[in-house]
Amino acid sequence: MGFYREQVLPHLVDRTCGTSGLRRWRATVTEGLTGRVVEIGFGSGLNVDFYPPDVEVVLAVEPAAVARKLADKRVSRSGVAVEHIGLDGQSIPLDDDSCDGALSTFTLCTIPDAPQALAELRRVMRPGARFHFLEHGLAPDPGVAAWQRRLEPWQRRLADGCHLTREPEVLVREAGFTIERVEQRYAKGPKPWSWFSAGIATNPQ
Ligand SMILES: C[S@@+](CC[C@H](N)C(=O)[O-])C[C@H]1O[C@@H](n2cnc3c(N)ncnc32)[C@H](O)[C@@H]1O
Fold it and tell me: What are the angstrom distances between the C-alpha of 102 and each of 3, 43, 51, 75, 107?
């Protein structure tokens, strides 16, 4: 799985997560970000086109070298300042209270210990800072959820540990964030992959 995971998968993710249908979701979820923003699972930089001008710097956390390379062109074209500061969202090499905001898109499904990554985000975010998230997860319809449970072992094998049955909104709330708003609905595409949660949560004072 080494060659597939390290060399092929980042290209597949770049294609499947880079569709025009997802651009609208990315534009919405990045609205209002400002200052120093930590992004976990930066991937191939598919959010850089949407960061508002008030973002001073994006502190990117991404383990896949090929994804970081794919991001380079996008980043230089965008004019957004991006610093690759770490490889693992479960252990972010930033000081406490040092970020004004945070972003995760389609990453809480994949990080092995999502509660640990969210605890790390809370640690590095200043009190009052906002966490913007866009994630897929467990659908409310029993028929779709049953398919998600059936497909999950394959999904995890083929997509670097990606889960179909995590509940991002629950994870964010249980991490101690205050959910300000969340939109949950099916996006375009096959339903097991398309139940999206897009929201903003505050790191309490
Ligand atoms: C489905 S991709 C999403 C990429 C990007 N956020 C997007 O929206 O296109 C999941 C990303 O999480 C990254 N990832 C996996 N384990 C991680 C970890 N422990 N910490 C941070 N990122 C991780 C993967 O390398 C991959 O780039």
Answer: 31, 15, 12, 18, 12
